[in-house]
């Protein structure tokens, strides 16, 4: 049995409104299982990570999936089964990373520097999701049937 791999469209272009907010460095759209669906870095950045490469965006996507799964497990323990997680914020000494649900099976992640207005960034993330959430969604992949044993 042979399968085909479908290339997912890059949704990075949708992230431009976020990367134009002062203090926003990078934005990424991630499938629930950690696949990068698109990413974009703000223009004219300097510093250690001036622009996310595809490999760095894929690593950020995997980390986003791990963090959201951990948060979902934590919320279930604290609030009971079926508790969803809407938003997460990670703070470091260099800035913030915000994650939010972005449609069915997808998340949106935004990295900022310390000078960013985090409330504005979170608000704009929600507006973007409301505006184009259907495009940010990631449909579940089909189950693969086990190959028959010989």
UniProtKB/TrEMBL annotation:
PANTHER family reported in the protein's UniProt record: SERINE PROTEASE INHIBITOR RV3364C (PTHR36222:SF1)
Pfam families in alphabetical order: Robl_LC7
Superkingdom as given in the UniProt entry: Bacteria
Coiled coil: none
InterPro entries noted in UniProt: Mycobact_SerProt_Inhib_Rv3364c, Roadblock/LAMTOR2_dom
Name listed for the protein in its UniProt record: Roadblock/LC7 domain-containing protein
Organism, scientific name: Streptomyces chengmaiensis
Domain Roadblock/LAMTOR2: 12-112
């Amino acid at each position: 049995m042979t399968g085909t791999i479908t290339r997912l469209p890059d949704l990075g272009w949708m992230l431009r409104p976020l990367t134009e907010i002062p203090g926003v460095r990078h934005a990424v759209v991630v499938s629930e299982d950690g696949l990068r669906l698109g990413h974009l870095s703000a223009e004219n950045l300097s510093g250690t990570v001036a622009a996310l490469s595809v490999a760095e965006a894929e690593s950020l996507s995997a980390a986003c999936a791990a963090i959201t799964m951990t948060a979902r497990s934590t919320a279930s323990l604290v609030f009971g089964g079926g508790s969803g997680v809407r938003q997460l914020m990670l703070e470091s000494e260099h800035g913030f990373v915000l994650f939010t649900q972005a449609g069915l099976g997808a998340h949106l992640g935004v990295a900022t520097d310390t000078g960013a207005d985090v409330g504005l960034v979170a608000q704009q993330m929600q507006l973007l999701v409301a505006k184009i959430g259907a495009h940010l969604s990631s449909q579940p992949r089909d189950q693969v049937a086990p190959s028959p044993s010989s």
